[in-house]
Each structure stands twice: as C-alpha cells, then as structure tokens.
Amino acid sequence: MGQVRVDLNLSLDGYATTTDQTPEDPFGKDWDRLVAAYVATRTMQERVFGRPGKGTTGLDDDYAAAYFEGVGAEIMGAGMFGLHAHPDDPSWQGWWGPNPPFGIPVFVLTHEQRPTLEMEGGTTFHFVQTSIEETLARAKETAGDLDVRIGGGARVVKAYLAAGLVDRLHVGIAPILLGRGERLWEDLREFEQDYEVTSEVAPSGTIHVTFSR
Amino acid sequence: MGQVRVDLNLSLDGYATTTDQTPEDPFGKDWDRLVAAYVATRTMQERVFGRPGKGTTGLDDDYAAAYFEGVGAEIMGAGMFGLHAHPDDPSWQGWWGPNPPFGIPVFVLTHEQRPTLEMEGGTTFHFVQTSIEETLARAKETAGDLDVRIGGGARVVKAYLAAGLVDRLHVGIAPILLGRGERLWEDLREFEQDYEVTSEVAPSGTIHVTFSR
Fold first, then answer.
1. Is this complex's ipTM strictly greater than 0.85?
2. In 10 A of CB A206, how many CB atoms?
3. Containing H/E element for A24?
4. CB–CB of A40/A205 below 8 Å?
5. Nearest CB to A190 within list B177, B187, B191
6. Domains of chain A, earliest start first
7. Rounded to an integer, what distance in angstroms lies between the CA atom of residue B141 and that of residue B52?
8. Which residues are in the Bacterial bifunctional deaminase-reductase C-terminal domain (chains A, B) (predicted)?
9. B126-183: per-residue pLDDT in tens?
10. Residue A200 CB: number of other CB atoms within 10 A?
11. Which residue of A30, A79, A111, A190 has the lowest C-beta tally within 10 Å?
12. H or E element: which one contains B13?
C-alpha cells in the first residue's frame, strides 16, 4: 500500500506562493528565489530542463530525486495546472510543454469539465469534479502499490493536510522572507503530534523538514 | 562597539507567543513545548533553575550559553516584565524572583512611571517612557563595548527588527505548530537581504537560524 506524500518549497515565513508577478515579469523574482536551490539540483536540471549531468548533488538533490521516486499518481489543483491563469481556453495543456515531467496519471481538481489529456512520456491529465477524498480514493486505486503525491498548490495541500490524509510532508524552507502569499501553516495546530518530525540543513541553506507517520 | 542582538524561541509556524493559558494552568502547555529544548540545556538549568551540572550539552546549550555572553544591557517590553498581567501593582518585581538571571541593567518599555528596581545579582530594572530608538541609545551607552539584547516580547522585537536596528537575530525553531499567537515573521519582507543567514539542526529537533550582519 502506497503513501500519500507532499513536497513543497516554503519561505522561512511560511509562504508557499509568491505575489510579485507583473505583466512584464509574469513569474516574478520571488519564485526564482524560493525554488533556486531546488531548481539547481541535478535531478531537476535533468528531468525538467533537459540538461543531463548538470546541477548540484548532495542533500537538495537527494530530496529532489526522492520527489520523483515511487509515485504512481498525482493530484493537483486547477491553479497549479494553470486553469485560473488560462480560463476558458480549451487548448491550454498546462505549464510543462508536450512532455510533462510527471510521467504518471495526474488528477486535476476543477469545476471545469475538460476531456482527458494524453501527453507524451506517460503523463495523463484527468480533470475531476470530485471531493478531495473521492479524488484521493481514485488516485490510490490508480497508483496501486505506489505513492500518491499531492502536488499543489498550497490550498489543495492544506485541505489534504487538514483532513489528515497525508502520510509524509516534506518542506524545503528557503531562508528568505516573502512577507505575503499563501501560508502553508494555518489551522494546523498540533499537526505534528501524529507524525515524527526530522530536519536537516543543506549547504544551500535550505532547511528540509519532514513529517512522517 | 557592541551589537544589538535578539534570541527568540519560535514554533515552526512562526509564533513567538502561546495562547493556551487558563486560570487553572496560568502558563499553559504550549509554552513548555515551545521552550522545552532550551530549558533543558545545562546553561538554563544552572543559571535560571539553580541546578548546576544538570541539563543537556551540545548545540542547544551552545546557543543558550551565547545568550548570556557579552551582553551589557537588555531592553524588554512591559508585557515581558509582567506589567500587563499585574497592572497597578507597585509591589510587582517581574517573573524572576529576587535574583533575576540578567545580572545587567534592563530597560523596560512602558507608559507606566515606576521607580528603578535594584535587584540581587546586578539586575537593575529601569522603567522608561522613551521611543525604541531613544531607549536603544541609552542601552548602548550603558552597555559600552558590550552588546545590547532586545529580550522580548515578540512585538517589541518586531518593532526593532522592522526599524533595522538589530545586528544579529537568532531564532530557535521548535518543530511544533501552535496555530495561533503572535507571529514574528510579519511585515519583514526581504529582511534577509541585509544579513547573512545560517541554519543548523540540534539533536533535540530545534532548528537554529541566525541572521547576522
């Protein structure tokens, strides 16, 4: 039986999203700062940016590699897939190009009815209008003995955490203060009491905190 | 010339204060959980609880020992001294008994006029009605070549941090989620940009993060 897993990048003040996007700079500078150490890893350079042999090794890369291991299905919110940024655009296929780095079935939680998207490399996007619990049941069935990853965004993750449905939460905390955005740590009082919590610091300065049960 | 320093215990969700105090349990359980690793150190056991030779050694104790080293004056808020909990009580002398663990002049920021309190062991409480800047100038003059510590509470610390008056901020982050209280990380966007940030994890699970300039 697989586990339900979450991996997120957070700022030290607990924000999982950034707010400095502008028409001129559609991703903003904060996102780059938030994910810099993660993007710099060999795993991400190879799997997402197509640069084999490039990138950092060590602790940050260990977590990045683990992110992709043993996952049989993913659940993400409509915002993470890009439906909020691209409303009513049937040609939108997500941020990741024709060959997304997932390689597994992905369930996108949305009120929008859209046909299933079969992408290259094994990624299939299913657009589902079910509750988080029903969606998880379907994802677990799809994943079989492998894990289900709750990919994001922050609000979807928080809903799964608050419902007690996550077995392993890993946050990579960048030592920066964003001051605004979506906070992960809200309404999660005593969340840690059902988990073992371990932490370690990478040479990049990223603080890796893992809740597992 | 000394530095201006802050040391605080924080929860992973960024709270520096706890909210579960009741008439039956006037300190609450959260505070004990927040400061458990700090209170357990040899330094705290010796200096605050009068138990020489007891307590943990290692990283947590290194930070606890550093807390007391090289400080020539302290600034604290009225709440930390206990004036909010004991209003209009001229006999109130703080939480720490006749021999407080400071051993230095302490400037208490308050609107209340109170006579200076000379305690045992070198602690003197001065009650000042000046701005945070004026109070810091006076504390620096008192400290001479030694450091000034901003002791707390969280609101006083935040005012000094936001004003750019702190040279070194150390937070000991306990891996617990309180869900409510006074947040340290508010309105401090990009605070880290004027500092070098280092982090390390103690065997207790406490994540020590230090901003220095």
1. yes
2. 23
3. none
4. no
5. B177
6. 4-87+100-212 (3.40.430.10)
7. 33
8. 4-187
9. 999 999 999 999 999 999 999 999 999 999 999 999 999 999 999 999 999 999 999 9
10. 16
11. A111
12. none
